[in-house]
Every structure is written in C-alpha cells, then in structure tokens.
Amino acid sequence: ETPQGKIRLIGTHLSLASLERWKEANNLLKLIESVEETEKNPLFLMGDINEWRGSAKLLKYLNQMLIPVATEPSFPSFRPLLRLDRVWYDTPNLRVSCMTLKDKSTRKMSDHLPLKIEIDFPT
Predict the structure, then answer these.
(1) Rounded Cα–Cα distance for residues 3 and 96 (Å)
(2) Residue 114 to residues 13, 65, 85, 105: CA-CA distances in angstroms?
(3) What is the pTM of this model?
(4) Which residues in 90-108 are b (16+ Cβ under 10 Å) and which e?
(5) Are 25 and 64 in contact (CB under 8 A)?
(6) Residue 36 has pLDDT above 70, yes or no
(7) Environment class of residue 25 by beta-carbon count within 10 Å: exposed (0-12), middle (13-18) or buried (19+)?
(8) Could you report the per-residue pLDDT of 83-100, keeping only the tens digit for each?
(9) CA 32 to CA 44: how far, in whole Å?
(10) Does the structure show a pLDDT above 70 at 39?
(11) DSSP run (H or E) holding 4
C-alpha cells in the first residue's frame, strides 16, 4: 500500500533469442493493457530483459510505452559490464531511482547483481 494505491509489479526474464524477446515483450504489454482497474495503481515492469545493446529496437519500443529508469550494469556479477536488468514504470508523477547492489555477498548470489529501486511519491 502506498500514497498512490497498491503497486503492481511484473517481474520477467526474457528469452536470449531476439524474436522471442519481442513476442514476450508484446505479450507483457498486452497483459498490462488488459488489466482493468477502477483506480489506476502504479505499475512497474522489471527484470532480465537480455538486451545488452542500448540502441536495440526492443528497448526503444519499451521506452516509448513506459517510463524507463536509469540502471547500471548488473551482468556478470563478478565484473558487471552489461545492463541486462531493466526497470520501467507508468506513473509520470513518481520519482524513481535505481542502484545496483555491489558487495562480496551479492556478487556470489547470482550471475546478475540485484537492483534496488527507490520510489518517491508526491505529497
């Protein structure tokens, strides 16, 4: 529960294959559009998008459909070089920031570093 209502979260892990990623992303966007609520609650889409090229058409498309959050490289965890993990949201009046958690313990948890999302709600 937040000042803006409940937050809706969609966590995903898109395919390594480019065509599959497009299909999966379109299915996620259809899911988002199909959810009918009387009260619009903030929505966040996040996860391993498996797209490392910043100029990729898929990222540009998602950036047009939702508001992107600046993320840092999170893969591979032992020496993060690629921004595979991404975050988007749909509520313009929020301030959202993201940081990659980098320490000995998080580097051992997975091949990706975890992201910490902070949301400031307007007062």
Answers:
(1) 15
(2) 14, 24, 9, 11
(3) 0.90
(4) bbeebebebebeeeeeebe
(5) no
(6) no
(7) buried
(8) 999 999 999 989 999 999
(9) 10
(10) no
(11) none
